[in-house]
Write a structure and sequence with these properties.
19% strand
């Protein structure tokens, strides 16, 4: 292949530009157009981000393993593209006033020469800082039984080894190695500071429940996602979703550790309501100050992470993104004061 660009560099290119990129396939879905012709929706990832595009009928698929190059039929070649390293040539187009990336050639690379894990994006926040801050937040819980419970969940039942490296999503926000830890620490710190603010304004917020609930709110993502080596949704994640999975995990731990029933009820309510709305996956809505605060911190952390992801992808000539259905708006780069 010709010289490749990073995904971040490609997203800076103007429309009608040609490009080459190398990365790992996060998602590949075969579909059919209105004329019954096959096409594929593909997401490729590297350490700088994700790129969604389409492979239309007539594009060429190559197998380049072993130093050779020959065309293959993607439906009958026996190659597993998802989770594998590939190269792509493509062109940036526009469809219905939205940027569209079309991939014209697909190169299945030699996986030993291009190990998939080398393209995995990692949390940009220092790992030692995140791990140390997580443990300090547990230590801030002044209620001894609750503090011991949270510590047991992560360090007695072997969740920590996965939790510290797991993604927080398959796409959209914190969808990379260490993303779950980064998101949980960020939500906990934000929720703690919001709680402190409202305690100063006479709202009776229980700081221990806020911190514990924020640290525990996304534990279900350990069962909802897998890493193979890119973040993917598990069958349980698709069928049950991380909120219900997390609530069930939490209740099992609460029973094993004989957690006080009232504390378990309050924490369970935070976990099951943290998305804030039923249409967003929460079976019930936040009804306590602690649940409202964790929901607000979680929602803000998602939106700011998504804003950064989208703004980083803008080329230098643009200040506003395309319309984003996920959050029902366009995002603006904003201004800075000096």
């Amino acid at each position: 292949m010709k010289k490749t660009l990073s995904i971040r560099e490609i997203k800076q290119l103007p429309k009608n530009s040609d490009f080459n990129v190398t990365g790992i396939v996060s998602k590949l879905t075969r579909r059919k157009d209105r004329n019954d012709n096959p096409f594929w929706e593909l997401t490729i990832s590297d350490s700088t981000g994700d790129l969604d595009g389409k492979i239309w009928a007539g594009s060429i698929w190559w197998n380049t393993q072993g130093g050779e190059q020959f065309p293959v039929d993607p439906d009958n070649c026996g190659l597993r593209f998802e989770g594998s390293s590939i190269g792509l040539t493509g062109k940036i187009a526009e469809y219905r006033e939205q940027t569209q990336y079309n991939f014209n050639e697909v190169y299945y690379l030699d996986q030993k020469e291009y190990p998939p894990h080398t393209f995995m994006k990692r949390s940009p926040v220092n790992t030692e800082y995140l791990e140390d801050t997580f443990k300090k937040l547990i230590a801030e819980i002044s209620h001894e039984a609750l503090r011991n419970f949270v510590d047991a969940v992560f360090f007695k039942y072997n969740l920590w080894e996965k939790f510290r490296v797991w993604p927080a999503a398959v796409s959209l926000h914190h969808a990379y190695t260490g993303g779950l830890l980064e998101h949980s620490v960020s939500v906990a710190l934000g929720a703690r500071d919001i709680a402190k603010h409202y305690k100063n304004f006479t709202i009776p917020v229980d700081m221990n429940l806020v911190i514990a609930g924020a640290l525990l709110h996304d534990i279900g993502k350990i069962e909802a996602y897998s890493v193979s080596p890119v973040p993917q949704m598990t069958t349980a994640g698709n069928a049950i979703e991380h909120i219900t999975l997390g609530y069930n995990m939490f209740m099992k731990f609460a029973e094993l550790e004989d957690l006080d029933e009232n504390i378990a009820l309050a924490l369970g309510h935070i976990i099951i309501s943290h998305h804030g709305r039923r249409e967003f996956g929460s079976p019930t809505l936040p009804a306590t100050p602690e649940a409202m605060i964790v929901n607000a911190a979680d929602d803000l952390d998602f939106k700011l992470s998504y804003w950064k992801l989208q703004i980083d992808a803008l080329n230098n000539m643009s200040d506003v993104t395309d319309y984003l259905p996920m959050i029902d708006r366009r995002l603006w780069r904003g201004v800075t004061t000096k």
